[in-house]
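Re: beginner question about structure tokens

> Can someone show what the tokenized structure looks like for a real chain? I only ever see the sequence side.

Sure, here's an example I had lying around. Input first:
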Amino acid sequence: MIFTIRAFVTFFTIIDPVGLAPVVIGLTAHLNDAQRRKIITRATIISAAIIAFFALVGRFLLDRLGISLYAFNMAGGALLFLVAVDMLFGRASGTRETKMEQEEAVTREDVSVFPLAIPMIAGPGTIATTILYVDLAGSNLFDLLSVAAAIISALIAAWLVMRSSLWIIRHIGRTGILVLSRILGILLAALAIQFILNGIVTFIQVSGLGK
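And the corresponding structure tokens:
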């Protein structure tokens, strides 16, 4: 049960559905509702495909590259911590989108692949989190289903928020979104530190330094 709760909290935080609302408004302001709906749906489907791909072959890629799991735990934890810090200070995360990418996105007609799917939804943080949780679940079917449910729920929430972005901005405003992001940032920071600690503990056990 604890693993399931952690998975849901982590994926909802790293994807940050509420934080996508102002991004969608800014990128699709020139489109009508039908076009906006089509782009949002396409972005969600593409994100799901990318996340599923790394869930299935992420560990295989790590093995082929000679990257140990404890190293990826520490690297993934550090990446998530950087995202958490940006959320706490209300800054646009560089792990999601750089300033140059933001400027380029404004001029694009179809923003479903870039920057909505990549890197806003299925960015480095989401990919790292997916690989970490799938590996933590191991061969436990219930844990794997929990990870899948967490990802699907977060993506559905992201789709719903992006579809309702105008209503959300109108009712809770940008200040409300920043407050929610800061609260989620605190949770993500704690989870990130836990990933790093898990990696350190595993390294100590594997190397025999704890003897």
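Each token stands for a local structural state, so reading them left to right follows the chain. The longest helix spans residues 165-207.
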